[in-house]
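sorry for the late reply, my laptop died twice this morning and i had to redo everyting from scratch. anyway the thing you sent over, i finally got around to it. pasting the sequence first so we're on the same page, its 148 residues, then the predicted structure underneath. double check i copied it right bc i was rushing
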Amino acid sequence: MGLIRNKLIALAHLKWIVYLGWVKGHAGIEGNELVERLAKEAAVEEGPVVYDMMPREVIVTRENDNGLHMWEQQWMDTGKGAVTKAFFPSVKNRLLQTIPLFPELTTVLTGHGKISSYLHRFGLTDNPMCPCEEEEQTVDHLILSVKN
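ok and here's the structure:
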C-alpha cells in the first residue's frame, strides 16, 4: 500500500485528480477487460520479466552483507592490528558486542598509547620496561601480569 500511496501523492503534486472506485469484473468494461487479459497472460506465459523491481530493504540488506563480507576479508588479509585481532578475531563478532569506547580501552585494543614498549619503539622513551621491572610494559603484561 505504501507504494500506491507514494504514487498518488506524486500525482497530486502534479495536480492530477485520481479517482478510485470499484469496477465490476467480467462485465464488458473495456479497461477492466484489458487488465484482466494482461494479468492472465502474465500468469501463464513464460517470457522476460516485466517487473523486476526489488524492495529497498532487500537491496539494503544485500549491500550491508556485501560490505561486511568485504570488511571481514580485509580484516583477515591485513598484517596489521595484531593486538586488536587478538581481542576481536572477527569483524562480525565485534559488531555484535556493545562496548563503550574510551581512550584507555582504545589504547589496550590497538596497542598504541602511553605504554612504555610502544613509546620506546618510536624513540620517545629510553626504557621499554614496566615500572614493576619484571618485563617490558606491553598490553599483555598490563592485563595479565600487573597486580595491584
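The chain has a mean pLDDT of 84.
thats about all i looked at so far, will dig more tmrw
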